[in-house]
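Apologies for my clumsy wording, but can you show me some protein sequence, whichever is easiest, together with the matching structure tokens, please?
=====
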Amino acid sequence: MDQEKIGKFIASLRKEKGFTQAVLAEKLGITDRAVSKWENGRSLPDASIMLELCGLLDINVNELLSGERIAMENYEQIAEQTIVEMKKQEEHKNKKLLTAESVIVAISAVSSFVIILAGLLLAPYRPTVGVILCYAGTALALCGTIYATTLEHDAGYYECPNCGNRYVPAMSEVIFAVHYGSTRKLRCPCCGKKGYNKKVLTK
């Protein structure tokens, strides 16, 4: 999706309706700064207000995400292109989250190892400092693991090996699941069977 094109489209429709950025923002219950970001192509409207925004501008969501009015004869083709583009963006976002997870795991593992090793080496000479460093290293490893798992949970879906259902489990299930890499042993909410669910980026 071309955010700049969408932004210009929103701006032109807003002006057609005689709304200022402040008036449109007030009707949507947001700040005029958010409207300005849309129109400058720096962000897109949240999904939670897209329908309301489209109603105010007399367009549909497909036209909003295409950044132009769509003739009926082209509607199905444009709709398919929009869906494909949204899937690509979702996949790209989820790839970034999984990359961030890998980086955080690596950094926290190395850092905590170095801190704990320093604590163990200092323990015979400075027992208090040694204990503090060991606790700090352990806490860093734990926090890094939890944060990385949160990123993994938020990136895409888990696919059931039994029925193929793709879903987002509860965070607690992901944290405590037996796993290798990002593949976790979970119970599918659709078929109720347990299995090693692999991480997938889109639905």
